[in-house]
Amino acid sequence: MTNDLNDTLQIIKMISGVENVVLIQKDGLPVASAGVWFSKDEVFAVASSTAAIFGVAKLIHGNFQYLLMESNTSKVFLASLPDAPDFFLAITTAPRVNLAALFIEMRDSMSRIAYLLHQHLDGRLPPLRSFNQEETNEVLSGFSVAEGKQTQYASSRSAIQLDRSQALSLRAVLRQVHDSIPAIESVFLSLSGGVRVSLEGFTNDRMAAMSFALHDASQRVIATLRNNRLQNVLCETNSIRHFIYSVPHGVFSLWVKRDSQKLGLMRLLLKHYISETTRILESAIVTDPGLPDDLRDLILSGGSDNNLVVARREK
Q: Does pTM top 0.85 for this prediction?
């Protein structure tokens, strides 16, 4: 089966603009690959990182067909296989690849891959290879895109403060998007921390948090592969297109019916609204949330192990 899979992946690799193709099990195990620059360790890194995105996309859109991550220097394309939900393809392409031609030419190859998997695996998934911490660090260091530089991983958290004028301006932009694009099912902003800003106001929402997580995971893949910044994500199902654009301190999320408008025209319309949203959010005040005084007193207070120190604020 391996030779047949490799031959089929090589057919996809020959499509104009395609650079690498990896067949991946949903839990991150690379099954086969074809490409121009992926080493064995790089294939593992691509498989493990895109599997996380695949999982989030499945949680949001159970029947999604493909997910497209775009940057200035490349596109990364995840495609579900027909009738093979435990596997998907990760494809890296040149920035100006003809996506319509890619979809059409991939169709037969994806069906062929799904047939081979059903014929030879019969629903059984091969076991994952385990990696200890040393081996994992070695893989990550080998996947570094910049020579002579140490890669540092860190997390940060900030709080954005919007005044009434800024909040109303954001809702006005969302209203314009809603009124100008037909068949919209949902349009909202997901600010850092998963807070949703929509026409219904400011609410905590699961879809806002999941959209933010999907964009964040996609950003990490683009940064790892190309040392570049993610521009947008497009997730498509049989009936829905889900656009996610990066904006300061959050993401812009749009759900629209798939057949409501041509993709190119919709992108042109969204470009203006993303620019306006960016302008408003760039004027917002951003602070690093500090530790409350009473909690700091409780953590830093001295005393014996047998004593319980309770700190509170004076009213």
A: no
